[in-house]
Amino acid sequence: MYIKGVGMTKFDYSTRHWWDFAYEAAIEALRDANMSIKDIDAIVFTSISSAAGGEHQTHKVSFLSDLFKTNVPIIELASVCGGGGAAFWTALKMKGFNNILVLAAEKFADNKSEIVVDWILSAAEKVCEQTEGMLFPTQNALIWQMYMKKYGATMDDLSLIAFKNHQHAALNPKAYFYQKPIDLQKIKDSPEVSSPLRLMDCSLSVNGGAAVIISSEKTDIEVVGSGFATDHILTFGRDDITHFKATRLAAAQAFSQAGITPADIDVAEIHDAFTSVELISYEDLGFAEEGKGAELIRSGKLNLGGSMPVNVSGGLKAKGHPISATGLAQVYEIVHQLRGDCNERQVANANIGLTHNIGGAGGSITVHILKKV
Fold first, then answer.
1. Annotated active-site positions, please?
2. Quick check: bond before 137 cis, omega within 30?
3. Contact, 282 vs 129, CB < 8 A?
4. Sequential pLDDT tens for the chain (373 residues)
5. How far is it, in rounded angstroms, from Cα 294 to Cα 172?
6. If you write DSSP's letter for every residue of 83-124 in order, what string do you get?
7. Which among 50, 257, 301, 344 is least buried, having the fewest CB atoms inside 10 angstroms?
8. What residues does 44 pair with on adjacent strands?
9. Which residues does 123 contact at the CB level (< 8 Å), separation at least 6?
10. Residue 244 near residue 362, CB atoms below 8 Å
11. Is 91 left (phi over 0), alpha (psi -120 to 50) or beta?
12. How far apart are CA 310 and CA 303, in angstroms?
């Protein structure tokens, strides 16, 4: 399958309705593809906030039918933070449709912090782990503690990741931290959230939408690899908690389909809900040997201007993380990178790009590889 058009709203804390974000992203994608909604044969939609917040709309497929004045099949699915990637993977598997709109929108960060946190926590196990205080920052902090002890990485390595992503986001007009670069020392001095992870090691929950139109008709961008794998919801019941098995499995599927190796990737969008997750994912995706992720970020190869820039959009860390929309926003960035129209943040000679989207703490993961035709 090929990508015909992409769209994305600015990620921010505006209080627009979820459908407003969806509409804006879809219209941009349709214009990008030089299409109308009448050319769309099916829609795959994803959102975590289907039954949350003041809007409380659970029948979004019918709402979208009304919004777009269409009667085509509309599927809604959820895979929490990995929803965008899962929706994209699902659409790629659908047969008998020429043009499919993959869409995500969240009005998520619109309530009291404790309510938003509760929505986020619905992506994890609530009976055993959360009753013991195992919230997402704590889960990832413990994973990182074990990783540091095992491999010798440091908090300074995570600071380099946060700094890199904030530098990139400052060049991205649709990122929350656009034109707001953050000093490296400020990152290191940010308050601890769950030791040793600090505030600047955590992504920010925002509102927004993203859309991708895939087509059986040849375009300038081809999806050459698509992988999806899952893992146990009990993080500490897994064989190795310092790595995400589902990333390795999904990456293996995607690289096998594409017929390439990690060395062939020119630019990547990696799921950095926490800076530690980005570093560990370098290894799980095959960009670094096990235990060598810290050496890779220290090398400068992953910065804009390096041999394989990562999260040139700013990533979840600095572009923002509107939960289900993140995976499609990653595709949006890679498509524009391969087309060569990212201006100040353009990666030179980008021909093959990768997206990596995680649901929960490694519980559902997709990896996609896109190629310039």
1. 81, 321
2. no
3. no
4. 999 999 999 999 988 889 999 999 999 999 999 999 999 999 999 998 654 556 667 889 999 999 999 999 999 999 999 999 999 999 999 999 999 999 999 987 776 677 777 777 777 777 877 777 778 899 999 999 999 999 999 999 999 999 999 999 999 999 999 999 999 999 999 999 999 999 999 999 899 999 999 999 999 999 999 999 999 988 878 888 899 999 999 999 999 999 999 999 999 999 999 999 999 999 999 999 999 999 999 999 999 999 999 999 999 999 999 999 999 999 999 999 999 999 999 999 999 999 999 999 999 999 999 999 9
5. 26
6. HHHHHHHHHHH--S-SEEEEEEEE--S-S-HHHHHHHHHTTS
7. 344
8. 75, 102
9. 48, 80, 81, 136, 359, 360, 363
10. yes
11. alpha
12. 7
Token pair in block for residue 46? 């994803």
- Candidates 142, 154, 135, 122; CA nearest to 48 is 122
Point out which residues pair with 270 in neighbouring strands: 356
Dist CA 141 CA 144 (whole Å): 5
Domain 2-112+206-213 sits in CATH 3.40.47.10: yes
* Tokens standing for residue 159: 């600071």
Backbone angles phi, psi at 92, to 5 degrees: -65, -25
CA distance 178 to 314: 9
Which residue, among 196, 204, 152, has the nearest Cα to 176 in the 3D structure? Answer: 204
Whole-angstrom distance, CA of residue 45 vs CA of residue 60? 9
Contact criterion met (CB below 8 Å) for 268 and 282: no
pTM score, whole prediction: 0.96
Span between the terminal Cα atoms of the chain, in Å: 12
What is the total residue count of the chain?
373
Alpha helical stretches, state H, 34-74: 60-68
Name the phi and psi angles at 316, rounded to 5: -60, -30
DSSP per position, 217-278: S--SEEEEEEEEEE--S-GGGSS-TTS-HHHHHHHHHHHHHHT--GGG--EEEE--SBHHHH
Buried b (16+ CB within 10 A) or exposed e, 329-343: bbbbbbbbbbeeebe
- What CA–CA distance (Å, rounded) separates 282 from 298? 12
Rg (CA), the chain: 19
